[in-house]
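[SOLVED] Predicted holo structure with adenosine-5'-triphosphate

Edit: marking solved, answer below. Original request kept for reference. I posted the sequence and ligand SMILES and asked for the 3D complex as structure tokens.
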Amino acid sequence: MSVIEAINIHKVYNPDSDVPVHALRGIDLKIDEGEFTAIVGPSGSGKTTLLNIIGGLDRPSEGKIIIDNQDISTFKDNELIDFRQKNIGFVFQSYNLIPVLTARENIEFVMLLQKRTEQEREARVMELVTAVGLEDKIHKRPNQLSGGQQQRVAVARALASKPKFILADEPTANLDSASTTQLLDIMHQLNREEKITFIFSTHDQRVIDRAERVITIDDGKVVNDEIQN
Amino acid sequence: MIWKLAWRNIFRNKRRTYITAASIALAVLTAASMRAIQKGAWDNMVDNVVKYYTGYAQIHANGYWEDKTIDLSFAYDEQVSSLATSIASIDQVVPRIESFALAAYGNKSNGTLVVGVDPIEEDNFTNLSDKVTQGAYLDPKDDGALVAEGLAEILNVGLGDTLTLLSQGYHGATAAGNYPIKGLVKFASPQLNRQMIYLSLDGASDFYDSQGLITSAAINLNSPDQLELTTSLLKAQLDPKTYEIKDYREMMPELMQAKELDIVSGYITLAILYLIIAFGIFGTILMMVKERTYEFGILLSIGMNRAKLGMTVWLETIFIGLLGACIGILISMPIVAWFSINPIRMTGEAATAYEKFGVEPIFPAAFDISIFLSQAFLVLIMTSILALYPIMTLQKLDPVQAMRA
Ligand SMILES: Nc1ncnc2c1ncn2[C@@H]1O[C@H](COP(=O)(O)OP(=O)(O)OP(=O)(O)O)[C@@H](O)[C@H]1O
Ligand SMILES: [Mg+2]
């Protein structure tokens, strides 16, 4: 059963201006539960745009995004925010932790928004920090953590509310190769053990090599889609 | 969690928080001290002016103030004379009978205001005996007169001479009498100095044939702040068909106009001050919003709704405003208290001018808690309105654009 279905997605930025940007030109995709999929393509090909639209951060100019049989492109702004909070975990290129909160509080944040109980939060945080290997860093603020550590906190945060899937836009772009490997190991392990669906964009060949499915887009269109290994 | 976020963000950029809070505190301090000194100076002025003659309020027979005729006079009976004991806020009740009369000596004559007073009460209230420059002050049953120096000069009379007074007495009676000049008094106000003649109550009663009635009872208060309370008590105790109560604001509208003008110009100064401070605070808020746009984008994308996020930012700003307002109150209280005990004293020509009119040339600050609270409250209101700006920005913020920045 596919978790996400993109049907004929088009995205035009600044449609009314002199120079409209046609970022996506008819994308059709199905992503199944438990996939570990990379979206690759040259700079400007539309990877970020596609991930944003799949995650409900942005709206397509044309086409539909069906998640769990719901067409999220018809949602109102507040419904979308709510939907994101419950169903989607985001990991961004530049960590994106809340600077005034500790690692633990960053991870807890979405659960607090969801009004989970203290015990629930405690249990989940411990589970996640163990999974990402940061048991000893939970009381540190983001600026006291390395880039790799911050990105692991970001993954833990994305997972905290047990979302259906995680969207990661170039999660390793700012990491050195050791941290990249470590992060990918963690993501892969969570994918296998907790059956979490990961969709991530990347330029990095080492990351592409670890993906199970590689979707290549160019100039806003899917040009290649293959299963690896 | 909203609180935690807001609280931590306040201490994230400590310097900015301190600078903003300090400028708010400064605004409260400046505004509160300005208002306190202005209020204090006016209280002092009014106190001086009312104690010069009028009193904080007067009791008349109903309709007297309109007509000012001696026919509308009333008995200085137990009910009126004992008001100082029956109403706690009243310090003194000072009975007077006033009317205009022609004073003549030799071939000179002049219009005068002849006032019959209780020499003791009058002296307690207006310190009339201190104004005596020649001769002696009146005794309670005196049949002599105190004459203002300027008037004596016009009539060319001196101590011991006998003045003839002519007027219309109570209910059309002819009032006429001869009064030896017992003393001369000097008034700073040229107007009073040209027309005042004081008799004892008994002397005046004989003159006006008024059988002990009086035209006004001036009221002195223990504290100027009790004026409203006192007049309402008086209105409740004294039958409005028989009596009217006029406070000094009704009796001296020019003084009130001058006061209002001064207060309005004070408000304008304050408004300018607040405008400057508002721009400062707004600048801080703008900077904060710009600096944090990216972070707002994250929070929106991980599912914090706009209302909650807006609330956090609003709380932050309010915290800072509150901090500033509290500091402002805390530093202005001792400063204002100091100036209320040690008034600013004027010097030079201005001081001489004040003294000439019998007003002490000082600017004591009024230590009035409501001034601090209202200024602090005003600043808080201003801050909370300014804090709506980030909330408005957040309503329109697109997380994708915010994170692209
Ligand atoms: N908000 C926007 N407004 C206007 N144009 C945009 C906007 N976002 C993206 N674009 C344009 O749309 C196209 C696709 O951009 P997108 O960011 O999706 O590419 P990408 O594949 O993620 O690139 P990169 O690998 O550099 O991150 C580009 O030409 C980009 O300039
Ligand atoms: Mg991109």
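OP edit: DSSP finds 17 helices and 14 strands in chain B. Thanks to everyone who chimed in.
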